[in-house]
Amino acid sequence: MTELTERDLAVLGLEARQWRTAGAKERAVREELNLSATRYYQLLNGLLDRQEALAHDPVLINRLRRIRAAKRLSR
User: Fold this and answer.
1) Could you tell me how far CA 27 lies from the centroid of its own chain?
2) CA-to-CA distance for 61 and 24, rounded, in angstroms?
3) How many CB atoms lie within 10 A of CB 11?
């Protein structure tokens, strides 16, 4: 198992926040992580499959995995 990088931890930390407006999250992704929204979600999706991320924040990862699974079923 590899450790989570600082960027991985920053992505998880940003995802754990609550957002008042839809654009606030995307703005924070650009300003704080210097990533496009597309790249952010690619990284986040990859983190959902990693055991290190699950060990770091099991509640967040399991919630996001459920959301991802529900979206896949609705397609």
Assistant:
1) 15
2) 21
3) 23
What is the residue extent of each domain of the chain?
6-74
- pTM recorded for the entire structure: 0.89
Burial-class residue 66 by CB neighbours within 10 Å (0-12, 13-18, 19+). exposed
Distances (CA, A) of 55 to 31, 47, 52, 59: 27, 11, 5, 10
Q: How far apart (Å, rounded) are the C-alpha atoms in residues 53 and 19?
A: 21
> pLDDT digits over 2-41, tens only?
899 999 999 999 999 998 987 999 999 999 999 999 999 9
Residue the block writes with tokens 């999250």: 25
